[in-house]
Amino acid sequence: MKFQGQVLKMSTINDTPIQYYMNFSNDLINMNQLIGKKLKLTLIGYQCVNCGNDERLYRMGFCKNCFFESPYASDTIIRPELSTAHLGIAERDLQVEQEIQLVPHVVYLAYTGDVKVGVTRFNQLPTRWIDQGATFALPIAKTTNRYEAGMIEVALKEHLPDKTNYKKMLQDDFEDDLDLADFRNKIEQYFPEEFKNFYSMEGEVSRLDYPYEAPANINVFTLDKNPEFEGTLAGIKGQYLYFEGGNFINMRSHEGYVVELETL
Ligand SMILES: [Zn+2]
């Protein structure tokens, strides 16, 4: 089998275990069924996720121009607390920003090697947790817009990390009795006074089940440095494909790459 196209991050279905689909231009390939098989990944080129430009990508799947112009790559995508759509103030394109920001958001705790705090749109759960490789996750607040969730996150990240350490996530060490509800109860006091009404104890802990067992060594490669890679697929966690020998590729960081996947 051979597939070729522009890749986006893998699509997922939260099952036991999670089902992963490589996302090519027109094809979704179930990757779970390829575990144990020898695969070849070849870099063909680039295609900006916004304009289709084939120059080398700048960041997040965007060419340089789109990264600095597109409302889908604006600062508030990374830093929700800078959101201004709720004030009617445009950053790059008010209509797009209203669609992204003026919808319910969730502040959550997730275990990705450390207990971290994160923010996402309500309809992005549990996709966001799976993409980050969280083993456990718990919503702790539901807000009416992105700004409120961002302000809560800013206050909580004084006390918890907000970034995932990918090596710790891939090492996959966790204690079965890790209790996110206990973290939630302890962190309530750090909610900003004006957003305390969004704090919620109603959420339940989700446990995510990946087709994955951690190897002793973890080495991440990219198709830029290694444009033709061959290996036997051994597992999948977060957005990482794991190949025998401890070789990992982060498919999310290859969004916009044009890739050929061949089963050998
Ligand atoms: Zn572009």
Question: What would your notes on this structure say?
Answer:
The protein has 264 residues and is of the alpha+beta class. It folds into two domains: 2-62 and 217-263, no CATH class; 104-207, no CATH class. Helices cover 19% and strands 30% of the residues. The protein is built from seven helices and 14 strands. The chain has helices spanning 64-69, 75-78, 94-101, 127-132, 146-156, 166-171, 180-187, and strands spanning 2-6, 8-13, 19-23, 28-30, 38-46, 105-111, 115-121, 136-143, 206-207, 219-220, 228-237, 240-243, 247-250, 257-263. The protein has a seven-stranded mixed beta sheet with strand order 1-14-5-11-12-13-10. It is globular and about 60 Å long. Bound molecules: zinc ion. The site of zinc ion (ZN) has 8 residues, from helix 1. Zinc ion is lined by residues 48, 50-51, 53, 62-63, 65-66.
